Amino acid sequence: MSDLLAVSLPIFGLIAIGYAARALGLLGPRAGEGLSEFVFVCAVPALIFRTMAQAKLPEAQPWGYWFAYFSGLAIVWALAMLAARRLFACGHGESVVAGFAAAQSNTVLVGIPVILRAYGEEGAVPLFLLIAIHLPITMTTATLLIEGAGGLDWRVLARRLALHPILLALFAGLAWRASGLALDGPPKSLIDSLASAAAPCALISMGLALKQVGWPKERALLVVIVALKLLVHPALVWFFATRVFAMPPVWVGVAVLFAAMPSGINAFLFAERYRAGVALSSGAIAASTVLAALSVTLWLWLLGAVG
């Protein structure tokens, strides 16, 4: 519990800085939009490019491991979208954001320190195998879902996707990796500088948004999203990893804890980008991060990683 609090308190500190800066009038209403735009267009693409360019994947791909994790993710995403549309009459954009918030995990800020603390070096390989493809897959999925809505002409859709910063970064990183060139020197310093700005700038931007847009009106939907993220997602991954596929206990534990992490900050950045579900995404991130101190401890105990 103390380890989780040590990880989560700095997150809330950055959110509080953004909230206080807006409340005191130190930053205006457009500051949050500009900051989140910078993170979405520059910092996160740099992070994705670096991840894909430097990813070290084994020759024999662990398909069962990936299928176990992403099967749970897909089910939770679909359930959240369905609940948002059918039970709470949300529009398509807000429904996509609800699914994104319920499925995408906060891996860098919370997942890495918690999982490595639980499993040490033995958990590093399965952890970074997931990190290498997690953000590109979730961001690409969300982009395709929201850009392809409404019967958009395929030529317009293709043009939008071709110029989308997340997809550009994904393909550029894959191309760099395929070239065999090392990412070092001034290019690496530039990419590292942009990538390292993603998390703190995004959290401060979220604090600004929380003050400006407040908490979502549909609190019941927020409860559904948080329950899907912290309880249902890891439970589904545990089922697929132990009952459908066979893998070592450490790999099972890493996948389950990865799924049990709170909602990732990218859900908020995505919501800001498309002006849909901003309050819902920021509320889900804040609430799930608070409650993760309890739920992740429960999962650690159930997995036998503590005690």
Count of structural domains: 1
The low-confidence parts are none
What is the CATH top level name?
Mainly Alpha
Number of E strands: 0
Query: What is the annotated CATH architecture?
Result: Up-down Bundle
> Termini, distance in Å?
12 Å
Mean pLDDT score, rounded?
Answer: 82
Account of the 3D structure:
The protein is mostly helical and 307 residues long. It has a single domain (2-303), classed as Na+/H+ antiporter like fold (Up-down Bundle), CATH 1.20.1530.20. Helix content is 80%, strand content 0%. The protein has helices at residues 2-23, 29-54, 63-87, 92-103, 107-119, 124-147, 154-162, 165-179, 185-196, 198-213, 219-244, 249-260, 266-274, 278-303. α1 (2-23) runs antiparallel to α14, α4 (92-103) runs antiparallel to α13 and α11 (219-244) runs parallel beside α14. The two termini are 12 Å apart. The mean pLDDT is 82.
Looking at this protein, list some descriptive labels.
Na+/H+ antiporter like fold, 307 residues, globular, mainly alpha, 14 helices, 80% helix
Write the layout of secondary structure elements.
Elements lengths: L1 H22 L5 H26 L8 H25 L4 H12 L3 H13 L4 H24 L6 H9 L2 H15 L5 H12 L1 H16 L5 H26 L4 H12 L5 H9 L3 H26 L4
Offer a concise description of the structure:
By secondary structure, the protein is mainly alpha-helical. The chain is built from 14 helices and no strands. The chain is globular, with a radius of gyration of 19 Å.
